[in-house]
Design a protein that fits this description.
mainly alpha
Amino acid sequence: MTTNTTITPELLDQLLANYKKPEDLTGDDGLFKQLKKALLEAYHGRAENPSDPAVLLKLVSQVGLDVQRAKEILDSEEFALQVRESEQFYQQAGIHSVPAVIINDKHLISGGQPVELFEQALRKIAAS
Protein backbone atom coordinates (compact mmCIF):
# COMPACT_ATOMS: atom_id res chain seq x y z
CA MET A 1 0.00 0.00 0.00
CA THR A 2 1.18 3.55 -0.73
CA THR A 3 2.70 5.24 2.30
CA ASN A 4 2.85 8.86 1.20
CA THR A 5 0.05 10.40 -0.82
CA THR A 6 -0.10 13.99 -1.95
CA ILE A 7 -3.60 15.32 -2.38
CA THR A 8 -3.76 16.85 -5.86
CA PRO A 9 -6.59 18.17 -8.00
CA GLU A 10 -6.23 15.08 -10.19
CA LEU A 11 -6.59 12.74 -7.23
CA LEU A 12 -9.63 14.63 -5.97
CA ASP A 13 -11.12 14.53 -9.49
CA GLN A 14 -10.82 10.75 -9.52
CA LEU A 15 -12.26 10.38 -6.03
CA LEU A 16 -15.18 12.57 -7.05
CA ALA A 17 -15.62 11.03 -10.53
CA ASN A 18 -18.90 9.28 -9.70
CA TYR A 19 -20.54 12.52 -8.60
CA LYS A 20 -21.38 14.36 -11.79
CA LYS A 21 -24.00 16.87 -10.68
CA PRO A 22 -22.43 20.23 -9.79
CA GLU A 23 -24.58 20.47 -6.67
CA ASP A 24 -23.03 17.21 -5.44
CA LEU A 25 -19.55 18.71 -5.60
CA THR A 26 -19.92 22.38 -4.81
CA GLY A 27 -21.95 24.61 -2.58
CA ASP A 28 -22.12 24.64 1.18
CA ASP A 29 -22.52 20.86 1.47
CA GLY A 30 -20.64 19.75 -1.67
CA LEU A 31 -18.47 16.66 -1.48
CA PHE A 32 -15.34 18.58 -2.45
CA LYS A 33 -15.86 21.00 0.42
CA GLN A 34 -16.72 18.16 2.80
CA LEU A 35 -13.54 16.25 1.91
CA LYS A 36 -11.40 19.36 2.21
CA LYS A 37 -12.95 20.14 5.60
CA ALA A 38 -12.46 16.55 6.77
CA LEU A 39 -8.78 16.65 5.69
CA LEU A 40 -8.20 19.93 7.51
CA GLU A 41 -10.00 18.76 10.66
CA ALA A 42 -8.04 15.50 10.68
CA TYR A 43 -4.71 17.25 10.29
CA HIS A 44 -5.18 20.40 12.35
CA GLY A 45 -7.85 19.24 14.78
CA ARG A 46 -6.78 15.69 15.60
CA ALA A 47 -3.12 15.67 14.50
CA GLU A 48 -3.86 12.80 12.09
CA ASN A 49 -1.66 12.30 9.05
CA PRO A 50 -3.80 12.68 5.90
CA SER A 51 -1.05 11.02 3.86
CA ASP A 52 -1.65 7.83 5.86
CA PRO A 53 -3.84 5.67 3.60
CA ALA A 54 -5.95 4.45 6.54
CA VAL A 55 -6.72 8.04 7.56
CA LEU A 56 -7.45 9.09 3.98
CA LEU A 57 -9.77 6.13 3.38
CA LYS A 58 -11.58 6.85 6.63
CA LEU A 59 -12.16 10.44 5.50
CA VAL A 60 -13.28 9.33 2.03
CA SER A 61 -15.83 7.05 3.67
CA GLN A 62 -16.88 9.76 6.11
CA VAL A 63 -17.91 12.12 3.30
CA GLY A 64 -19.61 9.38 1.27
CA LEU A 65 -17.14 8.90 -1.56
CA ASP A 66 -16.27 5.57 -3.21
CA VAL A 67 -13.83 3.95 -0.77
CA GLN A 68 -13.01 1.06 -3.11
CA ARG A 69 -12.04 3.45 -5.92
CA ALA A 70 -9.98 5.52 -3.49
CA LYS A 71 -8.18 2.36 -2.34
CA GLU A 72 -7.49 1.37 -5.97
CA ILE A 73 -5.98 4.81 -6.60
CA LEU A 74 -3.83 4.65 -3.48
CA ASP A 75 -2.65 1.12 -4.26
CA SER A 76 -1.60 2.02 -7.79
CA GLU A 77 0.77 4.40 -9.50
CA GLU A 78 -2.12 5.78 -11.56
CA PHE A 79 -1.49 9.41 -10.59
CA ALA A 80 2.16 9.22 -9.51
CA LEU A 81 3.52 11.04 -12.56
CA GLN A 82 0.94 13.83 -12.33
CA VAL A 83 1.61 14.25 -8.61
CA ARG A 84 5.39 14.41 -9.11
CA GLU A 85 5.00 16.91 -11.97
CA SER A 86 2.78 19.12 -9.80
CA GLU A 87 5.22 18.94 -6.90
CA GLN A 88 8.15 19.79 -9.18
CA PHE A 89 6.28 22.71 -10.78
CA TYR A 90 5.44 24.32 -7.45
CA GLN A 91 8.88 23.69 -5.95
CA GLN A 92 10.50 25.28 -8.99
CA ALA A 93 8.11 28.21 -8.59
CA GLY A 94 9.60 28.74 -5.13
CA ILE A 95 6.73 27.31 -3.11
CA HIS A 96 7.93 25.40 -0.10
CA SER A 97 5.18 26.29 2.36
CA VAL A 98 1.60 27.48 2.55
CA PRO A 99 -0.16 29.74 2.09
CA ALA A 100 1.17 30.58 -1.34
CA VAL A 101 -0.79 32.49 -3.98
CA ILE A 102 0.18 32.39 -7.65
CA ILE A 103 -1.27 35.09 -9.87
CA ASN A 104 -1.38 34.62 -13.66
CA ASP A 105 0.89 31.57 -13.35
CA LYS A 106 3.94 33.76 -12.72
CA HIS A 107 3.59 36.02 -9.68
CA LEU A 108 4.08 34.42 -6.25
CA ILE A 109 2.95 35.82 -2.94
CA SER A 110 4.28 33.53 -0.24
CA GLY A 111 3.22 33.25 3.37
CA GLY A 112 0.41 34.93 5.24
CA GLN A 113 0.44 38.52 4.04
CA PRO A 114 -1.68 41.55 4.93
CA VAL A 115 -4.43 42.71 2.59
CA GLU A 116 -2.40 45.80 1.72
CA LEU A 117 0.38 43.67 0.22
CA PHE A 118 -2.13 41.83 -1.98
CA GLU A 119 -3.66 45.12 -3.08
CA GLN A 120 -0.24 46.54 -3.92
CA ALA A 121 0.78 43.40 -5.82
CA LEU A 122 -2.47 43.25 -7.80
CA ARG A 123 -2.19 46.92 -8.76
CA LYS A 124 1.42 46.43 -9.87
CA ILE A 125 0.52 43.36 -11.90
CA ALA A 126 -2.46 45.09 -13.51
CA ALA A 127 -0.28 48.05 -14.47
CA SER A 128 2.37 45.88 -16.15
